Amino acid sequence: MTPKINGRLSARSMAFVLAGGRGSRLKELTDNRVKPAVFFGGKARIIDFALSNALNSGIRKMSVATQYKAHSLIRHCQRGWNFFRAERNEYLDILPASQRVEENKWYVGTADAVTQNIDIVDSYGIEYILILAGDHIYKMDYEIMLRQHVDTNADVTVGCLTVPREEATAFGVMHVDENYRITQFLEKPADPPSIPGDPKHALASMGIYVFKWSFLRELLLVDAANPDSTHDFGGDLIPEIVKNGKAQAHRFNDSCVRHDPKAPAYWRDVGTVDAFWRANIDLTDFTPDLDLWDTNWPIWTYSESVPPAKFIHDQEDRRGSAVSSLVSGGCIVSGTEIKKSLLFTQVHTNSYASLDQVVALPYVNVARSARLRNCVIDRGVHIPQGLVVGEDPVEDAKWFRVTEGGVTLITQSMIDARAAKL
């Protein structure tokens, strides 16, 4: 075992965030933006969680690899993450797939996204690299994972969730020994192996990896020369290390940042409309599992300069009110009853309308007398006067997307198509 090194390992590390995936299960929410750029929690974007974890962990060198419909993601990073100073050896670079290696070659896998930018990573002069997925909601201290990587002298350390065995069939699963050394990496196994001493649970990959850069660099070059490789971390590199090197599992429970020691380890893949709606609505709970108010581990993001939220009218059937809800800056709640809902920046609602368990993305406008329940409303949608959604799923499905969980997704193109036929 290598000796412990004094000082924070994060100071000698970089975070490489993979943010190129479309996220097609979010349906129309990713028609114009990549999944990591999807809004979350009233102010933030999904990618802010990975970037904030890195920043709060002490990492000051970051790269974000983009590919699919990246404009809104790039603009968000430029506006919200522009406080890094190169003279202090701080960087956040945006790395679009730009045919840097050869003409007509985009990123063809997660590992290839790093391979094509080896020269940029070299220029940082770092010792360790964290490979992060940019599309999950969680709080994690990466320094703890880095320390385990060094202390166990691993070739790769894989961040892992502890999940019930019956749920692990949807993940890449780690089969580990009693020291949490990975002996097998199984992709969506029908019979997931359990954790030693815990037969009811399995270890599922979070898509988070720690490497020593010199080791990964050599591995990437070998992989790039292999015509049979898909150039993917989970599909190629990690199984290779499990077979011929030392792969170590890191339990998320050990590094999860909690607002209360008794709180559960919070991690969400908001990759479906139902999961996205549920995770946002959960924030309206009296004590949500995800604490966005924790100033010790803040979620950094781009904050627009907007006035405070405003509630107007105080008549019996025309009262601007919100109960068990999150209402962001710039919102105007005019004579609308809002219950257990989340309103993003600059949402305006009008008299006699009602919103119940609604997630309204920025710049939504709800006209008079609309009744909305169990909805996700995309950015900039204008809800017409008197529209009723969430009471008749058969009628809703004629015009909008209704999920298996009974959530209705509304976009402006759906509203326009409905208006053209009525």
From TrEMBL:
Pfam families xref list: Hexapep_GlmU (PF24894), NTP_transferase (PF00483)
InterPro entries: ADP-Glc_PPase, ADP_Glu_pyroP_CS, GlgC_bac, GlmU/GlgC-like_hexapep, NTP_transferase_dom, Nucleotide-diphossugar_trans, Trimer_LpxA-like_sf
PROSITE patterns reported in the protein's UniProt record: ADP_GLC_PYROPHOSPH_2, ADP_GLC_PYROPHOSPH_3
Residues of the Nucleotidyl transferase domain: 15-284
Record field: catalytic activity: alpha-D-glucose 1-phosphate + ATP + H(+) = ADP-alpha-D-glucose + diphosphate
EC supergroup of this enzyme: transferase
Residues bound to alpha-D-glucose 1-phosphate: 107, 172, 187-188, 205
Pathway: Glycan biosynthesis; glycogen biosynthesis
A Gene Ontology biological process term: glycogen biosynthetic process
HAMAP family assigned: GlgC
The protein's assembly and partners: Homotetramer.
Protein name, as recorded: Glucose-1-phosphate adenylyltransferase
